[in-house]
Amino acid sequence: MNHTKIFGHRGSMGTMPENTLLGFRHALDLGVDGIELDVQLTKDGELVVIHDEQIDRTTDGSGYVKDYTLAQLKQFSTGIKFSHLALFDKNVWSKERIPTLEEVLELIVPYQIELNIELKTNIFPYDGIQEKVIAIVNQFDYADKVVYSSFHLPSIVKLKQMEPSAKIAWLLEYELSRPSEYVKSLYLEGLHLHKDLLLNGVYDKKSGADFNIRVWTVNNGKEMEQLLKMNNVETIVTDFPREAISLRTDQ
């Protein structure tokens, strides 16, 4: 039996509006092992789940997340822009709103799945984001199910200093020489690697290190199959969790 975990990327981004309660619910119904999502801070310091620093691409509003209060952001639809997806239902999707991290945790806690929270701090620092994320995760007693990731290494290192038991992982698009040394010295739980680093054989060995490799974003069936066969891949992150789960079952 294949034990590779399947995480839904921003929910089920290939078929549902990304980073929405609708998309997360869909991923949960499919039976994902975990969900990957992104957090940013509003003008009034609320944690919201959205990938881009600007709301233009995924909502019918425009401007920066950080320039709106939560109440203002809640006026915009996070579903209406996704009419190109086959499951698009205007009446239902137009009502979707940018969720808070709290709303997402309320949804997933009964399922006890894993949660990968990506701190979107590589453009704006979002002062205080670490304390806020830790507080909400602890409020739901969910810390043991969460791994925090970021491209911006200082953000997760800071979080680890605040909460030594937190699991942190570095998002990487390029090869590290001697990755296990980074993992040990920075107390990383894992590395979240771009799929090409694995598919091109760059990380074909864990070099004896004790860390998890999660691979993103894997949407091609053949690539899913290749990665499912690798014994050093702990998790595959995909926009199409239904396909990945189905391929894993077939192995």
From TrEMBL:
<protein>
    <submittedName>
        <fullName>Glycerophosphodiester phosphodiesterase</fullName>
    </submittedName>
</protein>
<dbReference type="Pfam" id="PF03009">
    <property type="entry name" value="GDPD"/>
</dbReference>
<dbReference type="GO" id="GO:0008081">
    <property type="term" value="F:phosphoric diester hydrolase activity"/>
</dbReference>
<feature type="domain" description="GP-PDE">
    <location>
        <begin position="4"/>
        <end position="248"/>
    </location>
</feature>
<dbReference type="InterPro" id="IPR030395">
    <property type="entry name" value="GP_PDE_dom"/>
</dbReference>
<dbReference type="GO" id="GO:0006629">
    <property type="term" value="P:lipid metabolic process"/>
</dbReference>
<dbReference type="InterPro" id="IPR017946">
    <property type="entry name" value="PLC-like_Pdiesterase_TIM-brl"/>
</dbReference>
